[in-house]
Write a structure and sequence with these properties.
Elements (H helix, E strand, L loop, with lengths): L4 E5 L12 H12 L5 E4 L11 H15 L4 E5 L5 H11 L6 E5 L8 H14 L4 E5 L1 H4 L5 H7 L5 E6 L4 H10 L5 E4 L5 H6 L4 E4 L6 H12 L3 H8 L3 H6 L7 H9 L16 H13 L5
Parallel strand pairs: 1-2, 1-8, 2-3, 3-4, 4-5, 5-6, 6-7
Helix pairs in contact: 1-2, 3-4, 4-6, 6-7, 9-10
Length: 293
């Protein structure tokens, strides 16, 4: 399955006590099936990956596969800061009918570029499914450089990269150096439209959690080369792209989803509910995008 279009970095719905809400999980999946989303990334940053237990991640992925039945891509966030743990995780997750894995650069231990290359190559060797690399220096304190991505694009089963650096010129640089057919995706909603103009094949989006149809249509227009239409469709989403990050993701986006009635308000510590001081800001952005009345 091709990893292109508008893919959602889907949240993990939780009950007030922090338990995973599997009823709301099915509701979210149905929401994306009905609104043009191309794929879901299960257990990524927006899914509170740092606090999900292994069995929870497996159950979320299994239920997603069962629900969507191939109608959209199911990609599982399986990266950790340990190479051996990441390889082990992709090995046992490969038993599920998922379409691929998203592997973030190791956080905190700050490996060299050679260390990053060896980390991802080892994970790819353990996997039976395609792998997307994930570069998000703002969270991990390490930047996966284009030259390293170019080397990794030649490794079997490494199929693409989610580039979350908010600089479309990075996307252009990646497109110029990777192998033919290697997929470059934006990981930054605010610059996704420009990233597609620079050669990205879509976006893994936070905004798509609450505005999936709008994101899908904007990305489709951008991929079709209709610059004016893409700009027009993106304009009402601009404040949402920005204000869903007034506090750490996924705090604001889960608040909006709760206001929409799709999930409850549950989060896991150390994340805390959206502060009341930010409610008006986030609500105004959601209203401008047509998400809330």
């Amino acid at each position: 399955m091709s990893f292109s279009g508008s893919l959602v970095a889907i949240v993990t719905p939780m009950r007030p006590d922090g338990a995973v809400d599997l009823e709301a999980w099915i509701r979210l999946l149905d929401f994306h099936l009905a609104n043009g989303t191309s794929g879901v990334v299960v257990g990524g940053t927006s899914g509170e990956s740092a606090t999900l237990r292994e069995l929870e991640l497996r159950e979320l992925a299994a239920r997603a596969c069962e629900r969507v039945r191939g109608r959209l891509a199911v990609i599982v966030g399986a990266g950790t800061s340990s190479t051996s743990a990441t390889a082990e995780r992709v090995r046992w997750l490969s038993d599920l009918p998922v379409d691929g894995f998203l592997l973030v650069t190791p956080a905190y231990n700050r490996p060299t570029q050679e260390g990053l290359y060896q980390h991802f190559a080892a994970a790819a060797a353990a996997s039976a499914k395609p792998i997307l690399l994930y570069n998000v220096p703002g969270r991990t304190a390490v930047d996966l450089k284009p030259a390293t991505v170019a080397r990794l694009s030649r490794v079997a089963r490494i199929a693409g990269v989610k580039e979350a650096l908010a600089d479309p010129s990075r996307v252009r640089e990646l497109v110029d150096v990777v192998t033919r057919g290697f997929m470059v995706l934006s990981g930054d909603d605010a610059t996704a439209r420009e990233a597609i103009a620079c050669g990205a094949r879509g976006v893994i989006s936070v905004t798509a959690n609450v505005a999936p149809r709008a994101m899908s249509e904007m990305v489709a227009a951008a991929l079709a080369g209709d610059v004016a239409k893409a700009r027009e469709l993106d304009a009402p989403l601009a404040n949402l792209h920005r204000d869903l990050f007034v506090e750490a993701n996924p705090i604001p986006v889960k608040w909006v989803l709760a206001q929409m009635g799709l999930i409850g308000a549950g989060l896991r510590l150390p994340l805390t509910p959206l502060s009341e001081a930010q409610h008006a800001t986030v609500r105004a952005a959601a209203r401008a995008a047509g998400v809330l009345n």
